[in-house]
Amino acid sequence: MIQRYHNSQKEVKGMNTSELREQFLIEDLMSEGEVKFTYSHYDRIIIGGAVPANGSLALENYPMIKADFFLERREMGVINVGGAGKITVDGKVYDLAKKDCLYISRGCKDISFASIDAADTAKFYILSAPAHKEYPTTLMKEAEATPVVLGSADTSNHRTIHKYIYADGIQSCQLVMGLTTLTTGSVWNTMPSHVHDRRMEAYFYFDLASDQTIVHLMGEPQETRHLLVHNNQAIISPPWSIHSGCGTASYSFIWGMGGENQDYGDMDPVLITELK
Fold first, then answer.
1. C-alpha angle 13/18/23, rounded to 5°?
2. What CATH number did the domain enclosing 97 receive?
3. Residue 216 labeled ligand binder
């Protein structure tokens, strides 16, 4: 587990490309046979990936958390972005196809990840946030998530949003999580842009062809910066930053948040004409 600390707007204005990537881009998240985590000090969220190949991968404890076990004072959301897999939570097995989501309650101790077929490994994207209350461990299949269709082909942002963990879906203490899939031919996400000072956000890009890329926009609305992102990479977005992107081909991404509230509509919109 590695750490990423806070950066203010003033610091970010002076960063070069390498410094921006070092602070906000998580490049090596999905590695076969490993569980990898990045601890962000924005809302104390942990961003991770687990790719079980032969056998299962156990969720270990980390000294950095200063707890007796990983979810002693935390909750966790997991979305599978690979082949069929299963997650065992305190002896109970949950089967996850691609784009299924599992919320795991605070207090769960023995957690492991496995693939159904080693030739087509599951890829589990993980978010964990501090929690002060337990909610039931809950599995939600992609078909059960709340779909919202936004944008249009005319503006190259026709997309479908699936909400999993949020105020009207799977209940959690503070975690919010879902995914967005762009229609073929559409490339823009989260445009028009917004910020929400009350919540940080993490983006995980997947289903992007290996020879394609995404230009992710971040920073204050009038002081934007960009990062070039590839498949299975994640972005840490500070509460004061926009989080939009444009790909050279269609793709999907998982959005997840921790912070002051779980209101999906808590956004401070920014007009496209105001961006700089």
1. 70
2. 2.60.120.10
3. no
